[in-house]
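Data availability excerpt. The first of two example chains:
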Amino acid sequence: MARDMTPVLKKCRSLGLEPSLLGVNKKPSKKKPREGRKVSEYGVQLKEKQKVKFVYGVLETQFRNYYKRGTKMQGTAGDNLLKLLEVRLDNVVYRLGLARTRVEARQICRHNHILVNGKRVNIPSYSVKQGDVIEVCAKSKSKSAQRFKDILEVSSNRPVPAWLAVDKDNLKGTVNHIPSRDEIDLPVNETLIVELYSK
């Protein structure tokens, strides 16, 4: 499977993102970005798309499919795109504080550590729904593993969004409702992405 192996801090600097958005505790570089040529309208739109792809760890084909699904749903295509990305299982595991980063959340899902409504789900792109209960599997001794104790120490100070409820003692969370755009703390202008794809 294809993976983006670009160093996180380097990519954050080029896209103008804070590393904390990705769960990385390192401080951003103090280097000033080079002032080059004026960025074209297309360049600005492309940068917004790259930000969203990088934050959620999605490649181009999958991202385009999310966009197509978003255009068929009721409401604004840009808002729908972000909602579809936000309800991915790996992102929900990260938001609940059961993983330090989205990359780690993806690995936890892939390794069969996550149950959704009591059933194992090992597909990171699985879309959760309102009322779904996400928890760390107890049968595989995951709950008692040192790994999750270490994760909770790191992620305990990260706020959990209002659309999720978490029970950190039992490594469990519930989806209260599908998030609105206001509840997604991503500093991007999604209308530019819609403009880019509608050309």
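And the second chain:
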Amino acid sequence: MKFSREKIRDIYLSDTRLDNLFISEYMPMASGDFLKVYIYAQMCAEHGLEISDELMASQLDIPVSRIGEAWRFWESAGAVKCRRAGNGETSVELLNLREHFYHEPLTDDTPKEAEGFEEEPEDEKISAMYGEIEASLGRSLSSSELRDIAGWIRDWGASSEIITSAVKYSLSRKKDSIKYIGKIVLSWTEKGLNTEEDVKEYIADTDERHSRYRTVMNMLGLSRNPTEFETDIMDRWFDEYGLTMEKIREACARTTGISNPNFNYIDKVIKNWKEKSDEAGTDVNEHHSVSMSVLNRYYDYLREKAEKEAAERLEEVYAKIPEIKEIDGEMSSIGIRLSKALIQKESGEDGRALRERMETLRADRAYLLAENNFDIEYTEIRYACPKCSDTGINEMGGRCECMQKRIREAEIWQKENGIRN
């Protein structure tokens, strides 16, 4: 008995076979466009159809350029073999995936010269790269790892030098995972690195930069790693403003007394320095030879000087207007009684009477000063900075805005008095 099957004349009513090996091993690493090209070509190959790149692109609704990219991808993945003729035509052979995945590639006995096609020569650099990677890792690369590395070259444009440098760099940090190495390769490639020398310069700059980051964090008393926001700020200080570490150290010193030192505060200080130096046409890194210790001593000096001068003016007033000394004595006594009542939480008629008496005495005192041609605030302490009372610390607990002026004054004061840092 003889059997036969009716042939299907319309290929779109037929089936196209895909190996499970393709689905499990090859499909996960391909983009949607590349999958479209491969599956469509599989259909054409099973029915012996020829089709141009333009027609395939039209059928799949993708750019014509993606067809060539797809074949380069599948060839690097070991799924097809492409042969290119001198006239630009390409012949694509869809390989037996099971045979090529688990065994040595089959030899092609077809004389290529007779067909007019010539296979592309093997890239010696790439072959040497694989050998160097395996030597560094101390093992052979798996088929999936080979495909990953081929993808770095194809999709990211990574050079063989970058890949071998990334392997060595990762191993120096006790990392031998291909996925980890791939992240390094991608990062370096995106930064435009292409040669081993590029990598060396980048690593040297990165190590120095990270060292600077750690130094600044330590200055602020922070033991954690900086956030991306903080590194962006520091990069601006180093790269855009051109600040030296010494100048940044000076800015960080201004956070003394701040309970929660932060980058925004320091950034405002540095921006102010930069703007003023640009206006004056000077170098922002111009050094002020005053340490925080000397600056604090200068603040002490200003405060003591202001208090001493106020005491001298008070003695002058007492000599000319003895009544004011009596008023000050009574005001001091009332002040003590009011403080005691406040502490003991006492109130009532006595408290109100004391406060009224205090207001009367203040008015009498002001009248006597004015009557004798003294300013009513003549005996008050006159601080150089009323906002911080010559302490350098404002009401918010931060450094007062007078600090920049005090620094310049402290330089002169330090030199005149032979004071050391």
